[in-house]
Amino acid sequence: KAGVTQTPRYLIKTRGQQVTLSCSPISGHRSVSWYQQTPGQGLQFLFEYFSETQRNKGNFPGRFSGRQFSNSRSEMNVSTLELGDSALYLCASSLEAGGPDTGELFFGEGSRLTVL
Amino acid sequence: AQSVTQPDIHITVSEGASLELRCNYSYGATPYLFWYVQSPGQGLQLLLKYFSGDTLVQGIKGFEAEFKRSQSSFNLRKPSVHWSDAAEYFCAVGASSASKIIFGSGTRLSIRP
Predict the structure, then answer these.
(1) B74-100, pLDDT tens digit by residue?
(2) 64-93 of B, contacting A, C-beta below 8 A
(3) Mind telling me how many Å the CA of B39 is from chain A's nearest CA?
(4) Which of A27, A69, B31, B87 could form a disulfide with B27 if both were Cys (CB 3.0 to 4.6 A apart)?
């Protein structure tokens, strides 16, 4: 079974630009969540999508947005990039079956964004 | 408020020595508890999880963790570490959906040859 796939793995942008990151979850997983990882702030929750609906959003500005498609693939977008947006962006999928497996996250390898 | 504390930022142990990584949590209800490992340049991989039942949980790669409700702790242990265990380890507490999973700040493990 293929794991969570994130593209691109690495990218460099300049301040003011926008970026779109993609995440393909494990087949059968309907929940996709996004995290920002930085050395100073650790892992911070961005948002979670389930069946094309945003269920929850973390404490990030409106420049950060996302969406989920009918095949459960998800994209996140960051507009008007700032230097502080440089981070590893991790996508995770989960079953959301409501049973004991609920909450177990399967992570992709991440997209490393550098903003110059 | 829900929180997870990993008091050790960086730990160095000798290869073959035993390991214990500390994790304390604050959570209003019975928590779901997780340990994840992140190798350099990689995403996070689940080592083990606790939902209910036996408080000593076995995971992959020879790791185990013990849930102690009275101490609000979920420490990770391994009897003998290998050089390949060098990584960052995250404790997490959560509920029924991914958005409610809170991660600790992580403990970086280095292995001394």
Answers:
(1) 999 999 999 999 999 999 988 655 556
(2) 90
(3) 10
(4) B31
